[in-house]
Design goal:
Blueprint: H1 6-26, H2 37-57
Helix pairs in contact: 1-2
């Protein structure tokens, strides 16, 4: 992501919260290269889920009105 806007930066922070919850389960002492494939996949999934959840939550409300 190049030059994330304020909303995207907030979504990235939310993604970090999801990832940190998972890392607490895995163990903070575990180095990234020592993660199993399943743990690494779960970590990536947590990052994407956290980001998407935040983006959806802050999306402008949809309206059926024509914008012009």
């Amino acid at each position: 992501m190049i030059d994330p806007d304020e909303r995207e930066q907030a979504a990235l922070s939310n993604a970090l919260k999801f990832m940190s919850d998972l890392m607490a389960e895995i163990g903070w002492h575990t180095r990234f290269n020592d993660l199993t494939a399943a743990q690494a996949a779960k970590l990536a999934e947590a990052a994407v889920d956290g980001f998407q959840e935040s983006i959806r939550a802050t999306a402008p409300s949809e309206t059926s009105e024509v914008p012009f």
